[in-house]
Amino acid sequence: MASFGISGKRHSPRISSHVSSSPSYSPVGFRLIHSLSSQSKENRDGAPLDKRRRMVGKEATPPDETRARKVFSSVNSDPDPVVPLHHSGIEFLSREDVEKLLGEEMKGKNNSDSKMMEYVEKLKICIKWHMAREDGYLEDQKKQRNFMEDEEKRHNDIVTQLRAKIDELETMNNEPKAENRKFLENERDAQITFESQEEIKPKEVLNTRKKKHKEQSNEELSCLRSELQQVKDDCNKARAEVQSLTLVIAKYEEITKTLDMITMKTVDLEETCAFQRTEILSLQHQLSAKKDELKQADLSVNTMTSKVEEQKIIIEELKNHLVEGEKLLKKQHNTILELKGNIRVFCRVRPIMANNDSSGTNGAVISYPTSVESFGRGIDLTHGAQKHSFTFDKVFSYEASQEDVFVEISQLVQSAFDGYKVCIFAYGQTGSGKTYTMMGNPNIPEQKGLISRSLEQIFEASQSLQCQGWEYKIKASMLEIYNETIRDLLSPSCSSSVEGKQYSIKHDANGNTVVSDLTVVDVCTEQAAQSLHQAACNRSLGKTNMNEQSSRSHVIFTLKIVGTNESTKDQVQGILNLIDLAGSERLAKSGCTGDRLKETQAINKSLSALNDVISALANKEDHVPFRNSKLTYLLQPCLSGDSKILMLLNISPEASSSGESISSLRFAARVNNCVIGIPRRHIQMRSRSDSRPL
Ligand SMILES: Nc1ncnc2c1ncn2[C@@H]1O[C@H](COP(=O)(O)OP(=O)(O)OP(=O)(O)O)[C@@H](O)[C@H]1O
User: Fold this and answer.
1) Which residue intervals make up region (Disordered) (predicted)?
2) CA–CA separation, 241 vs 654, rounded Å?
3) Pocket test for ligand 1, best of 399, 437, 545, 547 (most atoms within 8 A of CB)
4) Which of 39, 226, 271, 416 has the greatest count of CB atoms below 10 A from its CB?
5) Which of 514, 511, 513 has its CA nearest to residue 640?
6) Is 236 helix (H, G, I), strand (E, B) or coil?
7) Is 432 in the pocket of ligand 1 (CB under 6 A)?
8) How far, in Å, from the CA of 678 to the mean position of ligand 1?
9) What are phi and psi of 582, to 5 degrees?
10) Which residue has the higher pLDDT, 543 or 46?
11) Separation between Cα atoms, residue 23 and residue 267, nearest integer Å
12) So what's the ipTM on this one?
């Protein structure tokens, strides 16, 4: 009977009574704490459960009594004491604090704020959801606990009833024996009395009495057994119920664990929420600081913008002044040229070549005066222990690059583009750098000569004026005068050495030179310039003592530039002659014989003719001997007319060439003093017929 009671630990009501139904809140956000360790009031009051059970057993509640379900008084309805904690200045003492926080509204100004607020709102909803769930769990828990308590009570009642029944049965079981014993004793006593006092009764009566009594006892015993069986069945039933309740408790424990996890997550979320709230605050501070900065920047930008606008207006005015100034400068420049005469002379000294040994030549014979009036324009040549000083429009030392030279000459190229006749010729002894200056090396950009650079400038200028309605046609021809014979360097037959074609030179009424049958090509692109340079390679070359590849002819490259403006009906015609003269050379020094000697004599003759023409012009003689050579005859319109002329005197710096150099310098000085007409710009209305030949 001892194992009949509810003695398993898991079934102890103590377990269920330990689960507190009341959450308590901690201040980091809020935290629900399930007080699994709290004691029931009974336990606190010092009444152990076993004792209670015994007390209930003593009350012996009848088994058929209605199972009244009462709330266990052991449920701890008071929350555990809450210890207030502080976080970010926020205090949570109760669930009301949390609900108050959830009820708070946040305000935001910009996009990132609204995102954060949206996030906070979501967190709040999440917390509310957890709280609602928790309430549900607590309600369930409470119901479970009540149920458990009822069950426990019912079991106690059953146990009490069973015990009472067992006691009763035991009592009943013992009663017949005592009765029988008493009866037998009585019977024995009666028999002794009977035998001793009266006559002995018959034996059958005694046996009948014994049999009757035994039947009565057996009947009562079987009745008791069936009652006992009934109690055992009840007990089994109660055990099954206890088992199912155990399962319910296990389930409840699982739910409690899940609830704990959710609570922890809630705590985490609350912490994140608090952290992000702090972040939002700091971001809001930063934002307002940045806004202030932006305002300041806007102000300064506005100030700067207005200043820039002012500057732009000033710049625009200055630009206009500049354009006006440039125009004035051009005008003054032309006026000066006109006053000076239209011949200008530049002098260029080439560097000492590596193969020229000047060690035995007393060193440098060329020097440059540094005085203010001669700086960049003067050149001193020491010849025969005597220093000869010359001044020209410009003097380039051996350090001057092709670019430096072209910068000074580009104005004249521009003049040709603007409608002037321009003639630039390189003069100097053989090997002094005339071809280098004029042709250069077109394959190396910094060594490109005047012809390539002039073409580039004219192409650029024509393109830049396209937007103003100007359209330019550029035509080129190239010839050489070799041994007083003209060769067409652009003719396809030139390179195939078909000789014998005769070219005649004529001058028309407009002062233009016409060479019969000369090939004229349209120069449209810069690539065309390359082919012109190729044509230059067709010129006659030969080796002299002074130059490995001496040009044995005068080469005249002519560009005719015709610009037409459809809107203004204006037309300009400019001519640019770029002439690379053959090198002057003393016959004795050249060491030439045979054909070379003939070449040199012809060169010298034509150069001498040029010298004579210049002298005549300088002396303002009535007769100028232009017809004495093909060169002077060809250049007649340039030398006597309205052209702008530039003589580029090339000088060899070696002492061994000083004799040639002084002759060249003297000739250049004479040219510099010439006054030949006044340059005139050739501009006309397009409607007028333009019959000017090249
Ligand atoms: N300014 C310079 N810088 C570098 N090299 C130069 C310069 N001037 C001329 N030379 C070089 O000097 C040599 C002679 O020059 P170039 O052929 O141009 O002389 P030239 O006066 O045309 O002679 P020629 O009358 O005999 O034809 C060439 O090798 C050329 O490259």
Assistant:
1) 1-80
2) 132
3) 547
4) 416
5) 511
6) helix
7) yes
8) 33
9) -70, 155
10) 543
11) 14
12) 0.98
Residue 664, ligand 1, Cβ within 6 A: no
- CB burial class (10 A; 0-12, 13-18, 19+) of residue 591? middle
List pLDDT tens digits, range 159-196. Answer: 888 788 778 877 876 665 666 677 778 867 877 776 66
Tokens read off for 43: 């336990």
What is the rounded distance in angstroms from the CA atom of residue 523 to the CA atom of residue 501?
25
Cα–Cα distance measured from residue 275 to residue 607, given in angstroms and rounded to the nearest whole number: 99
Q: Rounded mean pLDDT of 390-402? A: 93
Both tokens assigned to 425? 């010729």
Better-scored residue on pLDDT, 329 or 527: 329
Residues 556-565, mean pLDDT to the nearest whole number: 91
How many Å lie between the centroid of ligand 1 and the Cα of residue 266?
94
Residue 590: CB within 6 Å of ligand 1? Answer: no
Compute the residue count for the chain: 694
In short, whether 672's Cβ falls inside 6 Å of ligand 1 is: no
Residue nearest to atom 14 of ligand 1 (CA): 431
**Ligand 1 contact, 431 CB (< 6 A):** yes
**Residue 583 CB less than 6 A away from ligand 1:** yes
Residues 6+ positions from 388 with CB-CB distance below 8 Å: 380, 381, 382, 662, 665
Structure-derived torsion over alpha carbons of residues 222, 225, 230, 235, reported in degrees to the nearest 10: 180
385 Cα–ligand 1 center, Å: 27
Determine how many CB atoms are found less than 10 A away from the CB of residue 285: 10
- CATH 3.40.850.10 in the chain, residue ranges: 392-641+680-685
Distance CA 577, CA 379 (A): 27
CA distances from 572 to 78, 418, 451, 521, 688 (A): 112, 7, 21, 19, 12
Structural element, H or E, at residue 47: none
Measured from the CB, is residue 434 less than 6 Å from ligand 1? Answer: yes
Ligand 1 centre from 401 Cα, in Å?
A: 13
Q: Where are the beta strands (DSSP E) in 32-96?
A: 86-87, 90-91
- CA 382 from chain centre, in angstroms, equals 65
Expressed in angstroms and rounded, the spacing between residue 693 Cα and the centre of ligand 1 is 34
Which of 402, 406, 436, 661 has the most ligand 1 atoms within 8 A of CB, as the residue to mutate? 436
DSSP string, 471-498: EEEEEEEEEEEETTEEEETTSHHHHTT-
* Rounded CA separation 25/79 (Å): 9
Task: Name the architecture of domain 392-641+680-685.
Answer: 3-Layer(aba) Sandwich (3.40)
544 alpha carbon – ligand 1 mean position (Å): 13
Residue positions in the annotated binding site for ATP? Answer: 428-435
Nearest to 203 by CA among 214, 194, 557: 194
Q: Are 539 and 451 in contact (CB under 8 A)?
A: no
Task: Check whether 658 has a pLDDT greater than 80.
Answer: yes
Which of 85-89, 328-332, 569-573 has the largest mean confidence?
A: 569-573
pLDDT band at 682 (very low <50, low <70, confident <90, very high): low
How many angstroms separate the alpha carbon of residue 439 from the centre of ligand 1? 10
